[in-house]
Design a protein that fits this description.
This protein has 391 residues and is of the alpha+beta class. It has helices at residues 3-12, 57-62, 64-82, 84-92, 94-100, 105-116, 120-128, 170-175, 225-234, 243-253, 257-266, 330-340, 347-354, and strands spanning 43-47, 134-142, 148-156, 162-163, 168-169, 179-186, 189-197, 205-208, 212-218, 273-278, 285-290, 295-299, 311-314, 364-371, 376-381. A hairpin with a 4-residue loop joins strand 11 (285-290) and strand 12.
């Protein structure tokens, strides 16, 4: 099934829904905030003082059944998406990939394998799976006093198991029970906080109190994650960094916003990506558009395509390009932020914007809000009731 046929199939399943295929945006959400406490992702601690193989044992053991329920679908749906030839190369080399991953990630994945009952190749697939399949919306906004807020939706599972009866994506639904808020501690003190899927050792949403906030959005490109992955396997190109492993290194090692920005901009990557970074001082906000070897930055307070001077909005498309009509989450987000105005910049405004359809859609697994000054991070599971755009 080609892409055009698949999109038609998904939209056809909405035949009886009161839904506009041409413009899924109707109005800005104003009453979604505050989120329900019952939707809050549970909190856990990852103890960095433990040997890497033991850090995830308690959490993975508790969530073992949810992890096992997901892995079978990951294999089947990855095969259908990348094709048999590429899938065979990846699957046949998963054990080799596991042994060549950098420390401590390789050791943590071994520990996750033991705690979950997955073999090493499955635990590795579970982790590299996220390197190439995420869709997201990220916002950094500054209020009139210079206070910074960072919010994001994590959308996951496009083209991966659409259910025409329930209007849901299989992978997105299986991931929701695995969303957790983590406190990464060393010496009994929290180094940073993140939102993760259980057993995923990289970082895609995080805050380091008093220093910076971070989120990651996928960037599409011909020289994308699969190319880098094949280069890792075939040409043993181990100098490139796995995207979410680099971001964890940034959270653990960077001491300033400027240092984090440099690391995210200048490191050679396995896949193209967007890094969205927020600092603690007025004007410290940036969208870092990454090719595997090069970068471009769009900074807060500089007006550019797709964003306003007091906020930045990134979905999964370059700031200097118009998003495609069938996946334009940026325009509604920008419209609703402008309508709310800088005087109302706050967690409430960001959560409401991230709850506006199609910014909120059937792929959205969670919404997160971060405040760098307070060092707070919250994450809430999301469900987009019909009529709701599929992506």
């Amino acid at each position: 099934m080609n892409l055009q046929t698949f999109i038609f199939f998904v939209l056809l399943s909405y035949t009886h829904a009161k839904f506009s295929f041409t413009d899924p945006f109707e109005s800005c959400e104003t009453n979604a905030f505050p989120p329900k406490q019952s939707d809050a992702a549970p909190r856990y601690i990852i103890n960095l003082d433990l040997p890497p193989q033991e850090r995830w044992t308690k959490l993975v053991t508790e969530k073992k059944n949810d992890v096992l329920a997901l892995i079978g679908d990951i294999r089947n749906l990855t095969l259908s998406l990348v094709g048999e030839k590429v899938f065979k190369v990846i699957i046949d080399n998963l054990d080799k990939i596991a042994t060549t991953l950098p420390y401590p990630f390789n050791e943590e994945i071994i520990g996750i394998s033991k705690a979950s009952g997955l073999n090493i190749s499955e635990a590795t697939l579970y982790n590299i799976f996220y390197e190439v399949f995420t869709f997201c919306t990220s916002i950094v906004a500054q209020d009139t006093s210079g206070h910074l807020y960072h919010g994001r939706n994590l959308d996951f599972g496009l083209f991966m198991g659409w259910n025409p009866k329930t209007h849901t994506w299989t992978i997105a639904e299986l991931l929701k029970p695995l969303v957790v808020q983590l406190e990464w501690q060393k010496g009994g003190k929290t180094v940073y906080e993140s939102v993760n899927y259980v057993g995923y050792v990289g970082i895609i949403t995080a805050v380091k109190k008093g220093l910076f906030t971070f989120s990651l959005d996928e960037r599409f490109g011909l020289n994308g994650g699969f190319v880098g992955l094949l280069e890792w396997i075939i040409f043993k190109d181990y100098k490139q960094k796995w995207v979410s492993f680099l971001t964890r290194e940034v959270m653990e090692e960077a001491k300033t916003y400027k240092e984090a920005k440099f690391m995210l901009s200048h490191t050679r990557l396995l896949a193209p990506v967007y890094f969205i970074l927020g600092g603690v001082k007025s004007g410290e906000g940036s969208i870092i558009t990454r090719w595997r070897d090069n970068f471009h930055t769009d900074d807060l307070l500089d007006r550019m395509s797709g964003s306003g001077s007091w906020f930045l909005v990134e979905t999964n498309y370059d700031q200097w390009k118009t998003p495609p009509f069938f996946d334009d989450r940026r325009t509604p987000a920008v419209h609703c932020l402008n309508k709310g105005g800088q005087k109302n910049a706050s967690p409430k405004l960001l959560y409401n914007v991230l709850s506006t359809r199609p910014v909120l859609n059937k792929l959205t697994t969670y919404t997160s809000l971060m405040d760098v000054n307070r060092g707070t991070l919250g994450a809430w599971l999301r469900k987009c009731e019909d009529p709701c755009w599929p992506w």
